[in-house]
Write a structure and sequence with these properties.
Blueprint: E1 2-6, E2 18-24, E3 28-29, E4 32-33, E5 38-42, E6 46-51, E7 54-61, E8 64-70, E9 83-87, E10 91-96, E11 101-106, E12 111-116, E13 136-142, E14 145-150, E15 155-157, E16 162-164, E17 173-178, E18 182-187, E19 192-196, E20 211-216, E21 225-231, E22 234-239, E23 244-249, E24 265-271, E25 286-291, E26 295-300, E27 304-310, E28 324-333, E29 339-343, E30 346-350
Antiparallel strand pairs: 1-2, 1-30, 3-4, 5-6, 6-7, 7-8, 9-10, 10-11, 11-12, 13-14, 14-15, 15-16, 17-18, 18-19, 19-20, 21-22, 22-23, 23-24, 25-26, 26-27, 27-28, 29-30
């Protein structure tokens, strides 16, 4: 596993506070190595790792940096293997896969709050009773927003989960993402819908209007999207043919598109063209995408990693003299098939 970006709280257990290039993580932790760890959540000051079916926190915890401790679990719950997690700087959201309730750990007070999902759109036609087996399969937290997806494709948002009607969407919802003020969902037929605050054009509808219900991103109609990613105030979408589309706030190049009129926004999904250091167009398909708060990262089919946007904490994997990038630049080549993910201010490449 390789990482670039903020290490201010020693959450990556490396000497440098800022990692300006993708560095391999191999330090032994509790007789396990970071290479054996699965990165579950990345926040500003700490990470949550899964090692051998157990969860650990690395970084800042209880006011102390350089920590590596077992994740606190709700009372009477010791089963880690069925746990879903999402987090931000203030809360950790925990969902046990076989239940329809959520535990929220307030990091400051160290108190757990249990929240049940009591609202459901599903009825048993015969008995006219609510179904109880529609369990949560994904949780996403970004800034103050959180979203939940169930195995039946139902969507809930908020720490007191509110059901979001998606029966008008074409296809079954198969993925959800959220930025700091907007939500994105993907259906199994490749359609993309967004809702929330549109003041930075992050909804992709071409205007600044707020939207209360999931609304199709019409510029992508007819294009089968297979993956979405959102964070901050921008969004990425990957098509079945390996094309990358981006929209939203672009003040420091986080969507990887340079506009001739120096516009800082892209109101509708824009096809992103990638160029090498000589200005030649790169004709290699994209196979993975990820959004940080103010940067983006993509992985091409040749396992090369490209980044764009803010490099304040080295998250682009470029040299320290590169403060920002207005377009995607190659920063790394993985030696084997890999995946990428972004924390708020870092980029991770993992097998």
């Amino acid at each position: 596993m390789f990482v670039a970006g903020a290490n201010l709280f020693n959450q990556w257990f490396l000497c440098d506070k800022i990692l300006y290039k993708l560095q391999e993580i191999s330090r032994k932790l509790k007789d396990k190595t970071y290479l054996d760890a699965d990165i579950v959540c990345i926040s500003w000051s700490y990470n949550i790792l899964k090692i051998a079916e157990k969860f650990f926190i690395s970084g800042s915890w209880k006011g102390r940096d350089s920590q590596f401790v077992t994740l606190p679990l709700p009372e009477n719950n010791t089963e880690d293997s069925n746990l879903l997690l999402a987090c931000n700087d203030y809360k950790i959201v925990m969902i046990y896969k076989n239940n329809n309730y959520i535990w929220i750990l307030d990091i400051k007070t160290e108190n757990f709050q249990r929240v049940c999902i009591t609202e459901s759109p599903n009825f048993n036609i015969v008995s006219n009773q609510l179904q109880t087996n529609d369990n949560i399969i994904k949780a996403k937290v970004s800034g103050d927003l959180c979203a939940f997806l169930t195995k039946e494709g139902n969507v809930y948002t908020g720490y007191l989960p509110c059901y979001i009607a998606t029966n008008h969407c074409m296809g079954k919802v198969c993925d959800i993402e959220c930025g700091y003020e907007h939500y994105v969902l993907l259906t199994d037929i490749g359609s993309v819908y967004t809702w929330g605050n549109g003041r930075r054009l992050q909804l992709g509808h071409g205007d600044l209007e707020n939207t209360e219900t999931p609304t199709e991103v019409k510029a992508l109609a007819g294009i089968k999207i297979i993956k979405i990613s959102a964070n901050g105030w921008h969004t990425l979408a990957l098509s079945e043919s390996g094309d990358l589309y981006a929209w939203g706030w672009n003040d420091i190049g986080q969507i990887g598109v340079k506009f001739e009129d120096d516009d800082n926004f892209s109101g509708v999904p824009t096809l992103v063209t990638i160029h090498d250091q000589n200005g030649k167009e790169v004709e290699i398909n994209v196979k993975d995408i990820a959004c940080g708060t103010r940067h983006s990262a993509i992985l091409l089919e040749d396992n090369s990693v490209w980044t764009t946007g803010s490099n304040k904490y080295g998250q682009l994997g470029l040299s320290p003299d590169k403060s920002n990038s207005e377009s995607f630049k190659k920063c790394f080549i993985a030696s084997q098939d890999a995946k990428i993910l972004c924390g708020p201010w870092c980029t991770v490449v993992r097998p």
